[in-house]
Design goal:
The structure is a homotetramer of 237-residue chains.
Chain A: H1 9-14, H2 30-49, H3 52-59, H4 63-69, H5 73-96, H6 102-119, H7 121-129, H8 143-162, H9 171-192, H10 202-211
The structure holds a DNA duplex (21 and 21 nucleotides).
Amino acid sequence: MTIPFSSGILDTRLTGLFAMSKAPPPEMTTYDRILNAATEVIAQQGYSGAGVQEIIERAGASKGSFYFHFPSKEKMVEALVQRMSERLLHNVQESVEGQPTPLHRVAASIEALIATFARQRRVAQVLLLNIIGHGRATDKRFLPMRERFSLLIQQELDGAVAAGQIPSQDTTLVAQMWVGAIHEVILRWLLTGQPHTLTSVTPQLQATLLRSLGADPALPPPAAPSRVGNGTGRRKG
Amino acid sequence: MTIPFSSGILDTRLTGLFAMSKAPPPEMTTYDRILNAATEVIAQQGYSGAGVQEIIERAGASKGSFYFHFPSKEKMVEALVQRMSERLLHNVQESVEGQPTPLHRVAASIEALIATFARQRRVAQVLLLNIIGHGRATDKRFLPMRERFSLLIQQELDGAVAAGQIPSQDTTLVAQMWVGAIHEVILRWLLTGQPHTLTSVTPQLQATLLRSLGADPALPPPAAPSRVGNGTGRRKG
Amino acid sequence: MTIPFSSGILDTRLTGLFAMSKAPPPEMTTYDRILNAATEVIAQQGYSGAGVQEIIERAGASKGSFYFHFPSKEKMVEALVQRMSERLLHNVQESVEGQPTPLHRVAASIEALIATFARQRRVAQVLLLNIIGHGRATDKRFLPMRERFSLLIQQELDGAVAAGQIPSQDTTLVAQMWVGAIHEVILRWLLTGQPHTLTSVTPQLQATLLRSLGADPALPPPAAPSRVGNGTGRRKG
Amino acid sequence: MTIPFSSGILDTRLTGLFAMSKAPPPEMTTYDRILNAATEVIAQQGYSGAGVQEIIERAGASKGSFYFHFPSKEKMVEALVQRMSERLLHNVQESVEGQPTPLHRVAASIEALIATFARQRRVAQVLLLNIIGHGRATDKRFLPMRERFSLLIQQELDGAVAAGQIPSQDTTLVAQMWVGAIHEVILRWLLTGQPHTLTSVTPQLQATLLRSLGADPALPPPAAPSRVGNGTGRRKG
DNA sequence: AATGAATGAGTATTCATTCAT
DNA sequence: AATGAATGAATACTCATTCAT
């Protein structure tokens, strides 16, 4: 009767993926030092606030070097977001492997996403806060990440429908809603610091989302029963 | 057994709230002409892309006039967002009046929000797309609108818990999630144009959100049955 | 039997047309101060060498002011060249008035052109030396001035043909050649300082050019016989 | 009674002198590949518009290579202009050999110059259009070519004076004027494409220039009568 | 001879803001 | 209340040149 999705391994995998420091290790390539510095600066100042000057200063590079590696600030940010999204989705997809059912997988991916953002605050700031809507209004450039994550969820939901786990419904819409719900929670955490530890909301988040599917979210526990259970997971006694 | 939340009145009330044209009526006060012009420009170009020059040109005002009425561009945008939020929430709250139960009210407010944004595309662009994350990253200035709407929902949810309509749960978190889910759907509509008419998703959106509360969303129809009702709100006969 | 083209009046008319000093008179408009400063800087450094910074410094203006008055450095130079050409041609055309025959007029215009350039060295530098070929190679923007002067000459030559002063010939080509010949002499003067006083070559220049028309250049003296006569003006004893 | 200056040999001699292609033949020395690439780029973009980067790309060379062969971009252009001038004047001087009288020689050199530029459009663009006035205004570096050609003409004119072919006159000035006239015609051709074939104006150009000397330009035909002759060289039967 | 990453002073241009009128 | 010329710090980007390999 509980919803036991877990993936403890994930944590160690992510460590150091976006690591960075004020004194950039010279053994890193200039290209990477610039992207890492950009992550920090954009996280702090936003896209428009992030000056090339400050980025190269943090990266220990020169103007010329910056424009040797990237044709423009804009393209650099594109490359940065691309790299972030790639890694993020890679981690999410990894966490999904080995999960027994579609619903297990979807819950695992939510957990992975939140765990990653919780650990990489700056990545969350860049991806969720400072990129959207930075230029011309109808800027579709950074839609892909949201779309890809939403697609990933949708596919699992479709699987769940096919497997009879949940009733047939507009999975595209639901997946979008989920992405929005999750992002909003992370956004609040970024802006207000509430809750203190982002990961603490994972269980309730999962429970609420699963409930929205209109299915009995009680699932047979996978190999390792999870601590994530909650008491509201059933609709009737 | 259906969930019939409605609010037909809403439509007429909103009309003309943010109206604006290329040749601004001179009988409007300069203050308002500037705010209206700013709405258009920000909707098209985003916050950073919106120059004071272009705004005053559209408003038929002068530089000096702008800075007579507003101490800075930033404060002007704050005033604009403030005015928008105020009107938006006012409409939402109006639509809630007369609804019999907390769940009815919460559903009505969702419908009102979406209906307003659907009608005032530019308002949606400014509020959801082009304001967040425009400057210093941890900018809490524009949180209020999201927070207030989320608070509004939370209060109704608390009422529903108290009334025994839904099980006890973390209504703060759920309200946040709802706001995120709704915003995301609107965002997609803004960026991709899908779905063609935003309001067409209202029923499914409401159904999914209500389901996430973990209660049988079938409600006794309120006084005046709405055209907005939908038939997918229940899981079995 | 001499070639008596003169126009002493001209000199006084031109005085002060492009006047300028390092301490710009504040009673001049910013627009003019910028154009004047640009004349000096371009004369010294050439088009690409002339930085907006240095121009505004000399003009006692600010960056913002510069771009308030001109949309770009390029457009500013266009305006400058336009103004210079306009004034130059105006002077030339003025000097032509009152000359009895087409050939007298053509000779007067040559004298006026040289006199103007001799007095406005910087104008010559800008117009002849530093503008042509400054950007993309096939830049037709500054052709107009040369073309207009050459057209002016051509029309007088056509008049001379019609009046039977010179034989029929390709006046377009000849006018071009004249412009080239005159410019080259001025160019040498600009680059080498030879001859010491540019105007001293006027008589020989006129004589040689008139001879090239294939007509007996001996003309009946106009009202005031000129000092410009030379001893090679006849073809046979 | 005609003016028959000819030099049919010239054509074949010039072929391939400045040949170049987008895929530079690897058997050419890097030094030459760079100069050739520079010719193309400068012809298209002008001196300031020609970046070292683009030049080496076209040359199939590297930055380091460029600066191994040339101390600076400026010196490279000097070398390029030097090489061009050298070859150009060499061809002109060759075409002069065998001509019977100074005036024949001078006419032949004009024909050779025009023929060369007509065939080597890029050379004309570089030498006449895109080099003058590119940097510091009073740049005497590229004067030499004009000066040398003008000197060459002057010497023949002096010879003509000594031989009694033309009256005594300021041959220095006349030579300068000639160079200017010829350059202007070529310049127009470069900028406007008129006349369609540059060489078609040669006869009239020669006739007009010779007439300007104040001598009967009718000359006894040299050994080999040329196809280049024209019938307008005399004023009366 | 050759490579190409790195440099940094220099460039034109933007833009929120001020201020005399 | 309103005007619009003036301000100047800040910005993204260029490019000839250097240098370790």
